[in-house]
């Protein structure tokens, strides 16, 4: 009887054991698949599919076409500035949801006159797709000023063509001169906008960007001057970026009282009014909401929150020269810096603010150029 029962147990226990083993194996496979899906979802949320595919394929094609020059004649003394001339500043933009939300946010302003992009235009070498997205939100004739970032250099001639075509449609190419997105300057409704690309192109490694800035800032006269480029010096951003531009370009713009606006680091940071941009950094005034520019002083603003990703901070974020920051550790999102020049009819002042797609305004300050001579 015992033997019979034992056999019976043996006969029925083996299938049960196999069934349990299969169930556990299936659960394990399901768990692995679930974890894999979560990983893919997280990675794709940080780096959208087109970027992942580009990296996986190790795309190294380079457009060797000659760089495009524009030969317009900027105004030596720019036109009178309209009241509340509104310019949005972004960098490190993309082709996906966050950038679309950001462009919609910019478009929702009661008045928006132009967009200035400080490099890294879409991360996937798709200038026509970028142009299509910009046209969707701003129209085909809306003025957009762009310089090259490190993720744009392989296909920069193609980006240049889309930039030039838009300038022609908007009629601003007549007031721009130089190598588009590499070393060009434009006058636009009373603003001087100079964009350069230090640290981006190997063939321009020894180009004297500082001298180019000096020449343009001496030749063209306005109290409102913008210097825009992509990369940074380590101390001039919140993250781990290294020294990639040199301080000469910073200090040339500071010498002429020009605003300095960059990208590259995927966060936002704004200095106090500075009188020296080198080691050590020298602060002129710690007023965080009122910045009075003059020849020999400037403000440095990094806004790399263009919709690609948002970085956290390092010890750089607690440096004593930062007046305002926005980054992942304080729940920062894609953001645009928006400045209204000739604010409410005061030609000497601009109201600037950082606008986050989730939290709205996260920084606001006045810039005053009373102390800057016209020539």
Shape: globular
Widest β-sheet, arrangement of strands? 1-5-6-7-8-9-14-10-15
In the CATH scheme, what's the topology name of the largest domain? Purple Acid Phosphatase, chain A, domain 2
Using the 3D structure, state the CATH architecture of the largest domain: 4-Layer Sandwich
Q: In CATH's first tier, which class of the largest domain applies?
A: Alpha Beta
Beta-strand content bin: 25-35%
N- and C-termini, Cα separation: 113 Å
Number of domains: 2
Keywords: Membrane, Signal, Transmembrane, Transmembrane helix
Protein name: Calcineurin-like phosphoesterase domain-containing protein
Pfam families: Metallophos
Transmembrane segments: 27-44
């Amino acid at each position: 009887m015992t033997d019979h029962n034992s056999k019976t147990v043996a006969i029925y226990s083996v299938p049960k054991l196999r069934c349990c083993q299969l169930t556990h194996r299936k659960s394990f496979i399901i768990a692995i698949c679930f974890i894999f899906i979560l990983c893919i979802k997280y990675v794709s949320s940080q780096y959208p599919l087109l970027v992942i595919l580009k990296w996986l394929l190790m795309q190294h094609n380079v457009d060797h076409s000659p760089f495009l020059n524009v030969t317009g004649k900027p105004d030596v003394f720019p036109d009178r500035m309209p009241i509340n001339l509104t310019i949005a500043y972004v960098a490190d933009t993309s082709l996906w949801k966050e950038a679309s939300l950001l462009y919609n946010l910019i478009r929702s302003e009661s008045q928006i006159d132009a967009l200035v992009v400080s490099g890294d235009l879409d991360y996937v070498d798709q200038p026509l797709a970028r142009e299509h997205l910009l046209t969707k939100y701003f129209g085909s004739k809306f003025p957009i000023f762009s310089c090259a970032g490190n993720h744009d250099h392989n296909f920069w001639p193609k980006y240049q063509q889309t930039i030039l075509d838009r300038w022609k449609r908007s009629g601003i190419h007549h007031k721009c001169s130089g190598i588009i997105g590499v070393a060009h300057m434009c006058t636009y409704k009373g603003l001087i906008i100079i964009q350069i690309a230090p640290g981006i192109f190997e063939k321009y490694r020894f180009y004297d960007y500082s001298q180019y800035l000096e020449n343009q800032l001496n030749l063209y006269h306005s109290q409102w001057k913008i210097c825009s480029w992509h990369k940074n010096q380590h101390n001039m951003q919140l993250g781990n970026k290294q020294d990639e531009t040199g301080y000469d370009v910073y200090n040339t713009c500071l010498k002429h009282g020009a605003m300095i606006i960059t990208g590259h680091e995927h966060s936002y940071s704004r200095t106090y009014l500075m009188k020296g941009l080198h080691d050590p950094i020298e602060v002129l005034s710690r007023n965080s909401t009122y910045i009075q520019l003059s020849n020999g002083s400037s403000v440095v603003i990094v806004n790399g929150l263009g919709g690609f990703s948002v970085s956290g901070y390092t010890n750089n974020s607690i440096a004593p020269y930062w007046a305002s920051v926005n980054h992942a550790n304080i729940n920062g999102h894609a953001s645009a810096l928006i400045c209204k020049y000739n604010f409410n009819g005061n030609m000497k002042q601009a109201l600037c603010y950082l606008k986050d797609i989730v939290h709205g305004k996260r920084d606001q300050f006045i810039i005053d150029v009373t102390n800057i001579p016209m020539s």
